[in-house]
Amino acid sequence: MTSRPPMAVPQRQPQRTLSGSGLSQSPTHQRTLSQQFLPQSPIRKSESFSEQAADLGDVAQNRFNTLPRRGGSRLKLELANDGIEHPGFSESPQNLDAMSANKVFTPSRVMSMNDISDAGDMTPRTSRCQTADEDSVPLPMPPRRTRFVVPAKRPEPSSTSTNTPPKKDGRPKPFVLETPSIAPRYPNMGKPEPIGKTRNKDTAARACTDRCVGFADFYPWTGSHPEDQFSDSIIRHGFFDKSPAQSTQEPASAKAPLFPALKHKSGLHTLSTIFTGILNQRRHSGQITSASTFKPPPRVTLTDTKREIWLKDLANPAISLRRLSRTIPHGIRGKVLLEQCLNKNVPTDRAVWLAKCVGANEIRAFKRKGVNGIFVMGGEAKWIRDWTVFVEQFVESVTNAFSENDWKTKVTYAIRLATHLYAEHLLDRDHYMDWLVSGLENSNQAKLPMWLLIIQIYWKDILKLRRHGRRLVSAILSHHSSIYYHPDRDILLPLVTRLQYLVESLLTTSPENFINPGIWLKYRESLLESAVSSNKESRSSAFKSIDSRNDYLTSSNAKSQPALRSIIVQLLDSIHRKPLDSAIPKQLWKTSENKLFIVRTILEWCTSLYRPGIAKVYIAASLLRSSSDLDVDVTRAILDFLDADPLQETARKHLVYHLVSELARSGHFSIPQYMQWLIARGGLSSPFETARDGPCATRLLVEIPLDSLNESMRNLRATLLRRACFSVEDETRDTAMAISCVKSTLSVPLDPHDPLLHRKPLSLKKLTKRIELSSRSLKTTISSWLSNDFVTGFTQTMQSGKGGVELPKTAFETVRTLLEASQDFTMLETVLKRTAASSSAELLASCVDTLNLHLPVFSGTGGAKPLFQTYYGRLKILLEEQGVGARPLLASLASLAPRLTGLEDVATQLRNDLIRIDRSSAADASSPLSDNMATQLQDAESELSEQIEKLASYTSADRPTMERLFYAIIKKLQAYWGKEDERQRLCCILLTRLRVFDLHHFNELMKGWIQHLRKLTNRPPIAQLFPPLISSGCLSLAILFATVPKTQAAQLQSSAVGSASIYRQEILQMLMMPFSPSAVMTSEDCYRFRIVQDHARYEHAKELMSLFHGAIAEYSRNQHATIRQPLDDKQTEEQFLELLRDLVLVDPNAASQTVSLKSPDPKLAALIEAWTTRLLVPNGGGGQKSFEQVLELANEFTLPFCQVKLSLNLAIDESGGPEAAERLQSQFEQLSKALDNAIDANNIMWTGMLPSLSSEITQHMRSRAESRFLDIIPSLKNPPNDVMFNKDIHMAENLLTVIDSIFRGSSGSKVSPLSSALVDKLADLWDILASRADEYASLRSAVLSHWLPLLFSYLTLYTSPSASAIDMSKLPGGEIRGRALIALAGLVQELDNHPTSNLGKQAFDIALALVDSLPEETRLQCVRAVKDVTADPRLRYLFSFAPNPAEDFMLAHRDKPPQGFNERRVLAMGMGMGMSMIPEKLTPFIFRRWEILNEPTPNVGENDTSLSLTLFDARKIK
Question: Which tops the pLDDT comparison, 1046 or 1464?
């Protein structure tokens, strides 16, 4: 407890202790003899915490080299020989049930979070003095005291050098009688040394310390000792140092009273009772009862010089702390204290002592201010928080000062001191851990090793708390991923290796901290790629376990087929819109373990009429080819699909033929297996089976590509077809005729006997139409001949070096047109690869334009980026060889590169190179521009070409000159507008040249001119002016859309008449209508304009939505105008419908708003109604559809169109009238009823469109579905009906699918908090599992098998990455979230009784995901509710609380025993009877860690220790 010297022993200079490898240094204070030989008091730090070397000090010895008798309290005497290291304090046990600490708490056992006992925390807790790593064991009762034996003599180290032998003293020595080592010793209490006792010369230096020690019954005979003088009294009664009093009976013999009692059978027990009473009386005779006089060392104001001297003395271990505790200098606090300890190199334990002294005085200062307890506690907590911040700043400043010479030594000291303060619980641990994790999160690569070194000291404590452990793992994963993918990874290899080791150790030791869906999805791939563990099996199993647990929280657990199909279709649509995203196909195959189901959905998506375009065929072919790696039989899957789906629509049949043709070419569709399947079904027997409109399964035999068959397969095919009266010979002749027609069109010499030799060749337009109407077999045959024979012939002659001719550009354009007509883009890709070796920049530019136009198709085949890289390499070569001549290829590549992901830098470089080449292609001269050019442009048209050439010789012009030139060219262009004059194209070229001089100013001039044209009331059609400007690059889509007024502004300009009133319709018509080569636009210009039209649909969908909306409003407003509107044309109407289909697929929400006009014209309303109905039912069935009909038509492919139709119906009902609100409410009721009927009818295909409806409808339907779902779940008060059990389960699954669809489709901001009803259902299921009655056995089984999995699936909707991305701590409902976590915690423990089920782990994972966004106040309430009823480490981790060793101490108070209690107790024990103990009263004990000082004050008192000696029943030794 304290260190004080015995009364007659002067203080000796403290010796340095042995060095240790622990965390701290032992204090070098003056200790009593009992403290030198007894184990330390429980409040003292272990000697293993010392870090400085010291020599062994000598203890006080007497002249015979024996150890003196021990002094101190009885507690020290009782602990003399037990040899037990006491790690800390233990409190009185409260719970006598040994199993109560681990007992599962039930709802009835949980204390309300608001009802906290005023008496404090009565829960017994084991304390830890140093760290909270492991629970300490309470102190046992000390063993029976044994006879004290003086330790053996320890040799003293020689003070002389070992190299110099000591001189031998030859003088005669007197005889000295040595005291036996086993002689008992006793204190003389100041008595003089016995006569005749001699002093050993070895202890002469310590004679002053020997006077207090005597040896019982050992006096060497000298003849002068009183015991040597015999007398009658000595002979009769023995020798006494002091004669006893006459009244005592001690001289009398005890034999007479004791011997009869010993002869009795209970004599031994009686004797032990007597001796126990004697010992008890002895114990109470010297017991310390005075109050504690402890006070922390006072602080005084000292001068700077004295303060420096005091600090230097503190750094000197030889100076006692008791001496320094007299005056502690004022002004040493906070960061100054830490820096002074660092600069003076104060030993760590002495620095901690100083920090405790300062802290104790600071905390006591709050209490002296006279405020109430709440403010005192708040002030104390604030001071500790500020002190923690000082420690954090101190450590950070020292670690950042790496430029100093002694940086390593200072860092070591700072980290060690901070670690000691942390281990002594002198810091705000929560704030300190938060600082550590934040430092690691925000650390750069240079400081990362230091942060890793520091944080590993507190590794275990951080990982035991969810709120810090999760962030720690996230930070390490973030650093690991960034460094793993760093371009200088080889330089950072040691850091990468260290991070990988830490990650792998965390995977196996702390998997719970990886349960974070958002973070896991982000860094999963880097972890998967960086697996370098030696123990691969354990790492792999840990990784798979964590992956499956996060996947459970991430993916939709409503695993019904509609929900799964909806997910797959959404992923396929994403691939269609973003074909270059390689991560989506991987995610697609992970959606389900049933790969055949995914293949079936892919086939349905590919053949759906609701997904336009041919790119989907090539995307599906690529996905099906990749499925072969997953052991999927693609052929069998396709045949099963053909057998199950009749495919009545012709368009769907052609899509199947196309898909099978592509798979047959690559060998992924087995034609022999297909023929075998046909034969097994009976073969072909009817001509209808091979007709164009015949069954798809049999017509496929006619459509399969012949070049994929060998001779035997062709013969078998012909045999099967002849049975169905199909002429194979006619097919062969048709094929030969088609090849001849293609040769004739390409000017290829025909065979002399060819019947087409003397006929006029077919035009390209007619030939393409005939190819489009041909069978797939004929198309593939023509495509194969074009690619393998015609184009390959040119490339082979070029590669052979025999002086062959390159493929002409016109021939390439013809081949491209024919291949596009046959829709064989596989062969077109082959042609593009083979023509890449050409040296013609214009031909290569045409190839790049082809790739640009069909980019979705080539992305689906996987050839887009390789082709781009090939042509990009050719560009570099042509730039070196031809220079400016390579401009066409450069312009085409600059247009294509921005559409490819991951090539942003290349796109910027190509754009800059194009500008540089354009500017360098003309001479630098400026004066002729301003002098002559503007005048010459107004001359005759014959001089226009000369002006173009002359303009090309200038590279710069000021803005006024450029404006004059621009308007001169525009004037000439407007003169040619609508006349089909080729000079219009020349004006476009002239503008292209002028644009180079100042791009920004030219765009401003162009924008102003377009605004002027928009307002003209009498002008030619827009389609005759803008296309050549757009294809030449003078007019961009951005400028074009910027000139279109917004819808709100357009509604104000209703006065527009004439051509100005149909401007939007004309723009839309221009962007959709096909163009043919003419005098104004060449075939190359038309092809490039097709590229622009394609870009507008996919990359400017938002602008097209606004333009479409404005066009519809414009058409509605001009119903009574005299001008003819584009929408009156049926062909334009069909084009509008196709555009609307594309826009609906891109963004259904925006499309719904586009067609949902508030007050449309009746004619327009009928038109929009017909459009939306045709989108939903392409093959007829027009008219308005009711809610029930729309829901019946809903499936995964029609959902966007159903959504538009549903929104249109609701919008029409909202339009105008005083009864609009009533009609809207009526529509809500009708919709709700329709949805309920659909759910009851097991029709839940429509769920995907719910999230895209208005927020009111979505919220209404979600609340309705949640209410019905929760009402179905049983409880003890409402048990389920056995008859309706299966129906209830099925209904719950359907409702869960509806809720899941709304959650999955809604944005993150719409995620709402948990409902109170959900928490009640969790508690009900907890009650059911906790019940042990036999009547509820079947109900418990149903809960485990059905209801809990369904409810957990519902909870996972709140744990998805989109939901967890929201900071739920700032939203209301935190208390409900806390109640849900309490219920989940109870289920976690209750499910331990069912180890065969995986529900316990699922409940724990859901709780982990929910607790991350729990408000701090709610978390603390959960902690107070849980810690009193359970000690489960999982719940401590979940709610992030660790038991404080000093928080739950209880002090036992015994009532005063009644009169005569001790006598009755002794009598009862003597009779062998038990007697109840005196009842104890427990009160909270406040453990003040800041006042646990080993040297508090220099004044020695009876009870001046930091912990009162009365707590240990200490007594004084007399």
Answer: 1046
